Amino acid sequence: MPNTVSQKTIGRLSLYRRLLQALANKGVKYIYSHQIAVIASATAAQVRRDWMAIGYSGSPTKGYEVAELIDAIGKFLDSPKEQKVALVGIGNLGRAILIFFAGRRPKLNIVAAFDNDPYKVNRVIHGCKCYHIDQLKTVSDETGIDVGIVAVPASEAQKAAEKMVAAGIKGILNFAPTPLRVGNNVYVEDIDMTMSLEKVAFFARQGNFERNFTSGEYE
Amino acid sequence: MPNTVSQKTIGRLSLYRRLLQALANKGVKYIYSHQIAVIASATAAQVRRDWMAIGYSGSPTKGYEVAELIDAIGKFLDSPKEQKVALVGIGNLGRAILIFFAGRRPKLNIVAAFDNDPYKVNRVIHGCKCYHIDQLKTVSDETGIDVGIVAVPASEAQKAAEKMVAAGIKGILNFAPTPLRVGNNVYVEDIDMTMSLEKVAFFARQGNFERNFTSGEYE
DNA sequence: TATCAATTGTGAACTATATAACAGTGTGAT
DNA sequence: ATCACACTGTTATATAGTTCACAATTGATA
User: Fold this and answer.
1) I need a labelling partner for A76 at 20 to 30 A (CA). Which of A55, B109, B160, B180 fits?
2) Which nucleotides in chain D lie less than 7 Å from some protein C-beta?
3) Residue A51 in 3-state DSSP?
4) Which member of B1, B192, B197 has the closest CB to residue A15?
């Protein structure tokens, strides 16, 4: 495994950055690990470990400098150049995703959407041009798309993923309720809402779960 | 921790069931652990371990009986009575969620939607009655809601969660891009699309990740 | 300047989860 | 009837991730 920073840490870094950005906007300059832990629902130790992973140090008396920290996370997480995203599937969910992500990250934008429904092709939805799925490779070659989002029904998902791989896409965010089988040079992250809801329903019946806001360290 | 079955296993059981149901519909009667492993992107050993967790046994020669297995998962995962779900936030994402879940699980349905926008209240959207958020406790007491879905902007999410907890909801599926702080008798599952997309974008740049379709056991 | 209090950075311990290894089992072929 | 095979069930081992615990650090205070 070439990269030494854990997958979970990568996810949390994204979260921390968002929370820190909100704090910075409120004028907060410094923050301690236990403070960010509270708002991120983590523990202070975990926060410090995550900073360690990206090699950022704070001061024992002042804590961490918020602006610098945001910057350090950006240097670690973000691509130096813009990364372009393609959405496949312009149904209800696809459109909601399109709107949700619009303008959320400056260097990570959905630049094109694809569907197999001819009625959706060649329109512009929420500022995003729509193409037929068969144009994926062409458009991708032209614009340099790195990441794909699958928002098609389960029955279409594998086909969509294969077209993405053929178009040279190296990372897929999969909303379809089925696993994708792709080569292991392509990273897939699944968002399986059905699974998540069933999990919630299950644990809602179980009672108690030791989720720690009261980080052991700070009572 | 009262329950002995791992959180990850619970999630996979939900997935297995869906995949098995699809197989059953195609007329498949028996299946081996390595077969389900392939379609679930897992390993055969993991599948057997997951079955073990719910105490279901197969035959060394015939494998697992699909219909029985679906049944066994249901007995373990599902509530004996219907579990009702409330959706809070009827924006783009909320509506997409409503449509997505409609009829997906027989005993797990979104029975009411809530928003603070007076224009959305008292309408019926996709077969689901809409109420003002302040009616959450009343409606919940009347109908017996167990699970909540948060689909509001980050700025509103904590408030929405607190109202859910006050209404006696014990499990929350959170789509808002911010952690929720609730007591530890309430289970929260986060679906953080921004985090997931950033993770994909990050790993898309990294190359190779040892994802195993080639389960070690079956070359 | 010396002491104090709060926090950091990090090795070590722990917990959760996944993989491997293999004895046990049931069926079909001989 | 016995054997060989392909699988299961489960224990043992390995890996990933989290928390603990404490020495080191630094600014504030007397």
Assistant:
1) B180
2) 6-11, 16-21, 24-28
3) helix
4) B192
